[in-house]
TrEMBL record:
One Pfam assignment: OMP_b-brl
Record's subcellular location: Cell outer membrane
Assigned keywords, A-Z: Cell outer membrane, Membrane, Signal
Domain Outer membrane protein beta-barrel: 7-295
Keyword Signal on entry: yes
Protein known as: Outer membrane protein beta-barrel domain-containing protein
Signal peptide: 1-19
Highest taxon listed in the record's lineage: Bacteria
Chief subcellular location: membrane
C-alpha cells in the first residue's frame, strides 16, 4: 500500500512539472474569439463637410390669390362665393443645390445619435403661373332684393403668382447604426427657408338685373336688364414678399462611408415641407452627395 501511494505522488509531481513547461496557448484564455469580432469605426465626435446635389420643388398656387380676392370682395355678397376659387395649379421646377454641414455624434456601442446644422443654397429654384376663372353668380346669399328682381353677377378673376426658394437652414436630429466603416442613418427636424413670393389678381365684375312681371293675362314675363360694371369690386391687388423667412419641417435618410481615418463620404435624400406663405405651399425633394471630416 505504501508503494502505491509513493508511485502516485511521483506521477503527480511529474504531471505538474510538465504542465508548467507547456506554452501559454491563446485558446486556453479564450483569445481566439477576438478574431471573430467585428471591427468597428469610431463615429463619435465633431465633424464638418460640404455637399452638392439636385433639388425638385413642388409649388401649389391653387389658393395663392384667395387672400387678395377676400380683400376685394370684403363686406360684399360676393366674398363667400369666390372664397375658394382655384385660379392656378401646382407647378414643379428643378435646380442644383450646394451646401455645408457641421454636427456632433455620440456613440453607444452600435447606436449613434447626433445633432447637425445644414445650410443649402438653391440655384434657379423658381417658378410662376397664371390662371383665370369666370362664373355667373345669381342672387348670392345674404343679399336683399326687391320682389321680382334677379341679380346676375358676372365675375372674372385673373391671377398670377411666383415663388423662388433662395436658401435654407435645417436643424436635424440623427440616429444611425455603426456598420464598421459604413453608417446608415435617418434624420428629422426643423427647417427655415428664405423665399421671394408674389401674387396678383385682377377682378372684373358686372351686374345685370332681370325683372319678372305678370301681364294682364296672367303670363309671367322676364325682362332682361342692362349689364353694367361694378367698379367697387373691379380692381387689381398685388402683394410681394422679398427674403421672407418661412419655417417648416424636414426628414430623410442617408449613409456615410469612412474613406480614410476621419475622412468620410455621404449621400442622402431629404424631404422638406414649408408652412404656407401668402397661401402658397412649397415642398422640396433634395438628393445630395458630399465629403466630410470627423475630428
Amino acid at each position: 500500500m505504501r508503494r502505491l501511494w509513493f508511485v502516485a505522488a511521483i506521477l503527480g509531481s511529474v504531471s505538474a512539472a510538465h504542465a508548467a513547461d507547456m506554452p501559454d496557448l491563446p485558446v486556453l484564455r479564450g483569445a481566439l474569439t477576438d478574431g471573430l469580432s467585428r471591427t468597428t469605426h469610431n463615429w463619435d465626435g465633431w465633424y464638418v463637410g460640404g455637399d452638392a446635389g439636385y433639388s425638385s420643388a413642388s409649388v401649389d398656387f391653387s389658393q395663392s390669390v384667395v387672400g387678395l380676392t377676400n380683400f376685394i370682395f370684403r363686406d360684399s355678397v360676393l366674398q363667400q362665393p369666390t372664397a375658394n376659387w382655384s385660379l392656378m395649379k401646382k407647378t414643379t421646377t428643378q435646380g442644383a443645390n450646394f451646401g455645408a454641414f457641421v454636427g456632433r455624434n455620440w456613440q453607444w456601442y452600435d447606436a449613434i445619435l447626433g445633432l447637425e446644422v445644414n445650410y443649402s443654397y438653391f440655384n434657379t429654384i423658381s417658378t410662376s403661373t397664371t390662371g383665370s376663372n369666370s362664373l355667373m353668380i345669381v342672387n348670392p346669399a345674404g343679399e336683399t332684393r326687391p320682389a321680382g328682381i334677379t341679380n346676375n353677377y358676372g365675375v372674372t378673376l385673373t391671377g398670377t403668382a411666383a415663388a423662388q426658394v433662395k436658401d435654407m437652414v435645417t436643424f436635424r436630429g440623427r440616429m444611425g447604426w455603426d456598420g464598421g466603416d459604413f453608417m446608415p442613418y435617418f434624420f428629422s427636424g426643423l427647417a427655415v427657408g428664405r423665399m421671394d413670393v408674389s401674387r396678383t389678381v385682377t377682378s372684373n365684375v358686372t351686374l345685370r338685373q332681370d325683372s319678372t312681371v305678370t301681364d294682364v293675362f296672367g303670363n309671367t314675363i322676364t325682362i332682361i336688364g342692362t349689364t353694367y360694371a361694378v367698379p367697387a369690386q373691379s380692381q387689381t391687388q398685388s402683394q410681394h414678399r422679398t427674403n421672407n423667412f418661412v419655417p417648416g419641417w424636414v426628414a430623410g435618410v442617408g449613409f456615410e462611408y469612412c474613406l480614410w481615418e476621419g475622412l468620410f463620404a455621404r449621400a442622402e435624400w431629404e424631404y422638406v415641407k414649408f408652412s404656407p406663405v401668402m397661401n402658397t405651399n412649397v415642398t422640396l425633394n433634395n438628393v445630395r452627395a458630399g465629403l466630410g471630416y470627423k475630428f
